[in-house]
Amino acid sequence: MRWPGGFRRWLGAGACLLASLVMAAAPVFAADPTASPAGGDVRTSSTAPGLVGDPLFAVVGVVVVGLVALGATLLYVRLTARP
Predict the structure, then answer these.
(1) Domain for residue 22, yes or no?
(2) What range defines the domain where residue 71 resides?
(3) Residue pair 52/44 in contact by the 8 Å Cβ criterion
(4) The predicted structure's pLDDT at residue 31
(5) Closest C-alpha among 16, 32, 13 to residue 24
(6) Which residue has the higher pLDDT, 22 or 18?
(7) How many domains in the chain?
(8) Is position 16 within any domain?
(9) How confident is the model at residue 61 (pLDDT cuts 50, 70, 90)?
(10) What is the 3-class SS of 11-63, one letter each residue?
(11) Helix/strand/coil for 32
């Protein structure tokens, strides 16, 4: 018995969908059901108010990346402008 070509494509697509759903659900089964520590944010010391890292450094980094992007954009526009 020969299967129509459309049915085989639907069967293959359904098998791929089922396999991807099973693989996507695998990390969910590995979740740890135990409660997290009651100490709060464990990434910082007990004296910090909850800030991790250096916020001023992060702001300066964002400004520098923005200025570099602005400079690259202006350079690209200047170099590709038609005379």
Answers:
(1) yes
(2) 54-83
(3) yes
(4) 58
(5) 16
(6) 18
(7) 2
(8) yes
(9) very high
(10) HHHHHHHHHHHHHHHHHHHCCCCCCCCCCCCCCCCCCCCCCCCCHHHHHHHHH
(11) coil
